[in-house]
């Protein structure tokens, strides 16, 4: 469903790979290797060269806002523009069951974002991205601040979502035990070069 051909930008050599419907591929590699650069290029947040095709539609032929609604991105440090958490959602109340599964306490939607913990913000950013129902979700260390139970809940929710909607996931993780739990394939990024391996 996603075809990437010779995608490149400064500090990232041309990368080619595909993502199948409902697939999850982990992205691994040393700190500073170019993993976030790869995700940001795919999300069309920074200028890049190469060809990216989603469900037969060329990225370059699509308005950027349309592309960004199809290809969701959860950065390692998500941004917040309104005071309370709920203001960042289309319909916060409908997400209550998922929020509970992620061990987020009731009422958190009305708290000022600035007062929330790093792990709380991380889980809210994941929910915010899922709510937009992207075809592809790019995750930059989405569970790095979570306890083991919340991590497993997030992994389970993403697996269910992929199975139900066909959403594909590209998941940057530094946790060697997480990769085989969530994916069968890995993209290894080293000094700006991308190659494929088993997860
Ligand atoms: N806009 C940019 N243009 C060019 N190079 C950049 C840009 N932003 C970051 N870099 C550099 O590119 C390199 C790769 O950065 P990147 O953030 O992709 O690493 P990473 O693999 O995600 O690392 P980490 O695991 O620490 O998050 C770094 O040396 C960084 O300084």
UniProtKB/TrEMBL annotation:
Pfam families documented for this protein: ABC_tran
Entry's Gene Ontology molecular function annotations: ATP binding; ATP hydrolysis activity
This protein's record includes keyword Nucleotide-binding: yes
PROSITE patterns for this protein: ABC_TRANSPORTER_2 (PS50893)
Keyword vocabulary terms for this entry: ATP-binding, Nucleotide-binding
Alphabetized SUPFAM superfamilies for the sequence: P-loop containing nucleoside triphosphate hydrolases
Domain ABC transporter: 2-199
Gene3D superfamilies: P-loop containing nucleotide triphosphate hydrolases (3.40.50.300)
Domain of life according to the entry: Bacteria
Name this polypeptide is given: ATP-binding cassette domain-containing protein
């Amino acid at each position: 469903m996603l075809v990437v051909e010779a995608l490149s930008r400064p500090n990232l050599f041309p990368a080619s790979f595909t993502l199948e419907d409902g697939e999850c591929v982990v992205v691994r590699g040393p700190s500073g290797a170019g993993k976030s650069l790869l995700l940001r290029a795919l999300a069309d947040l920074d200028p890049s060269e190469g060809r990216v095709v989603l469900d037969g539609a060329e990225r370059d032929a699509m308005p950027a806002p349309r592309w960004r609604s199809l290809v969701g991105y959860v950065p390692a440090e998500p941004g917040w523009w309104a005071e309370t958490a709920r203001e960042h959602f289309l319909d916060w109340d409908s997400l209550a069951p998922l929020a509970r599964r992620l061990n987020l306490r009731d009422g958190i939607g009305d708290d000022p974002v600035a007062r929330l913990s790093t792990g709380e913000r991380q889980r809210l950013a994941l929910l915010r991205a899922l709510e937009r129902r992207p075809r592809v979700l790019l995750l930059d260390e989405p569970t790095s601040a979570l306890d083991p139970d919340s991590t497993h809940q997030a992994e389970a929710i993403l697996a269910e979502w992929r199975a139900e909607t066909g959403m594909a996931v590209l998941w940057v993780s530094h946790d060697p035990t997480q990769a085989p739990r969530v994916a069968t394939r890995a993209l290894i990024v080293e000094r700006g070069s991308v190659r494929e391996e088993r997860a």
